[in-house]
Amino acid sequence: MSDYLPTPRTTPARKADRVGYDRATAHAVLDEAVLCHVGFVADGRPVVLPQLHARVGEVLYLHGSTGARALRTAADGGLEVCVTVTLLDGLVLSRSAFNHSANYRSVVVHGTATVVDDPEEKAAALDALVEAVVPGRAAGTRGPNRRELAATAVLRLGLEEVSVKTRSGPPGDDPEDLELPYWAGVLPLATVPGEPVPAPELPADAEVPEHVRSWRRGPGPVGGRG
Description:
single chain, Pnp Oxidase, Chain A, 34% strand, alpha+beta
């Protein structure tokens, strides 16, 4: 699996040692992340919106209301976007305030998002979006009806301009600070599910489905395909 090729938009101006273009790493981060942030320009002003996403091969699918400004723009020749995801793995606590940091994995995708018009691709993309949130959920819920499909737009963004940025490891304290009497180290963080809370209308004896009980988020194939 070849790396993504760097472009002017994916080449960093600083901290170049933290940036890479490994395709498998980018896929893993996109698949593990629950939310992405989509940046675009609307009416001459920058806008950044959180959205659910799903990766299928070399395509990233996004969705939203057909009445949204971004969707209307995308339908008219495409929408230039910058999509980012970030996984926070730990807080890096240094002896000096200046050297505090975070361990993370992030992906930035640049490109032109277009509206999916093909009914079969749209249906598959919506299934993928549900599966990306909770694997196995598409078979455990009612699919969208005609009215819901008409109110929902799906955007297609090819994975071409992609970069990965990461930090891991201990604090990077300055040598003169190593003898200071302050604790230093990493506080690991993880996304951990709580106990499922049933909807109030469910029967008291309704069992929690396996795909809900076994939900996790961590390294590995959690939503993306191909």
